Amino acid sequence: MVLGAGPAGENVAGRAASGGLSVALVERERVGGECSFWACVPSKALLRSGHAVAAARRVAGAAQAVTGEPDVTGTLRRRDSFVDEWDDRRQVDWVHEAGVALFRGSGWVAGSREVMVRDVHGTTLSLRAARAVVLATGSVPSQPDVPGLDEVDFWDSRAATSAERAPGSLAVLGAGVVGVELAQAWARLGTEVRVVESGPRPLPTMADFAGELVGAALRADGVRLYPDSVVESVSRTPEEVTLRLSDGTDVSAEHLLVATGRRAATGHLGLESVGLHEDGAVEVNEHGEVRGVSGGWLYAVGDVTGQAQLTHQAKYAARVVADVVVARATGRHVTTEAFSRYMTSANRCAVPAVVFTDPEVAQVGYDPARAERAGHQVRTVELDIDSVGALLRADGYRGRARFVVDERNEVLLGAVFVGQDVAELLQAATIAIVGEVPLRRLWHAVPVFPTVGEIWLRLLEAYGL
């Protein structure tokens, strides 16, 4: 039994079914989940039109051909095509083709291997899993404790990615990944955007230069940033919503987007029935098995575990869990070596992530402070991305990159790339970290001229190879 049919739940269900198990999948909304319909896919579709126009304007010859702004109607129509016009029939068909039974409704745990499902008609079903129950219910937006916020209508990320028109103005509370991506997406579609951030720069958990470069790009797009700001109250008139900041400044806009993070969706899962707290993330071991529940039958994957809130990491954990469940069901001995040798380290120190702003931010692994806390002898190498390949891609190309190196073993611990089209550099860095490839061997992995990837050679040379 799998509760939740987002990317994590789909992967558990499909892989377990292909391993010969009978699988039931429970979903109360759309099959495909948050990523497919309200997050990753529609947000990147909204960003792409503005990015394409901006990229053309950075190339002499192409710039002269750009005579207008991105078309809002065309952009929204393209976004709608990527979410199948908000219809999940295609993904439901896949579930059926995979031999998985789909239950439409809300599911919760009612005891050992027991699941209750209340379907769309209000009928409650009692189901029992012979082998395992997997929690894959994802996460939900967190709401900050700001006076007046409960009394106004505001956008969450779902509303911001599914809007049917470009608002005249938009205030964004929060400058993390969701905040900066959607701020830039709507700004490039003609919306007047203001971003209120609690820290000195956007993307506060990432490298300082990442936030600085993204902040500069947002300002160039006409976005007004309010750094180091504390919101004292929120109010609304029929025409606009207003944030009152602690310095007395009022920030007003037609809509307010609250983008202050997400929390594990464990409410109403019935976890108290198996001795767990109802609120907060579910802690799991290296096999995805929920800690504190005996019997080896309850597992969890994805955002609900409180680990990296990234679709690709959730799908990775889902594959591990499915393999473990199938192995146990077929009598094979489950060992860390066979099933999840690298799962703990992959979730701790080799998580790749991309912020799809322009410039992109692509990072994987440790930052210098985390690497030192983990006991590594750290050396950092940082350079501007200014190779011929980068300059051919865009006139005045601006970018920066950083390597974090374990000096004892001369292996890569972390990497950050900021610039146009740098996301495609990230997989090589992830392979180098997971594979613990010595830098002296990486030196012989010759980057193609002229590409942005030449930064690999420049960083290795700056290290001294």
UniProtKB/TrEMBL annotation:
Residues 1-316 form the FAD/NAD(P)-binding domain. The keyword Flavoprotein applies. Pfam families: Pyr_redox_2 (PF07992), Pyr_redox_dim (PF02852). Residues 351-456 form the Pyridine nucleotide-disulphide oxidoreductase dimerisation domain. Keywords: FAD, Flavoprotein. The keyword ATP-binding does not apply. InterPro entries: FAD/NAD-bd_sf (IPR036188), FAD/NAD-binding_dom (IPR023753), FAD/NAD-linked_Rdtase_dimer_sf (IPR016156), Pyr_nuc-diS_OxRdtase (IPR001100), Pyr_nucl-diS_OxRdtase_dimer (IPR004099). Its cofactor is FAD. Belongs to the class-I pyridine nucleotide-disulfide oxidoreductase family. PANTHER family: MERCURIC REDUCTASE. This is Pyridine nucleotide-disulfide oxidoreductase.
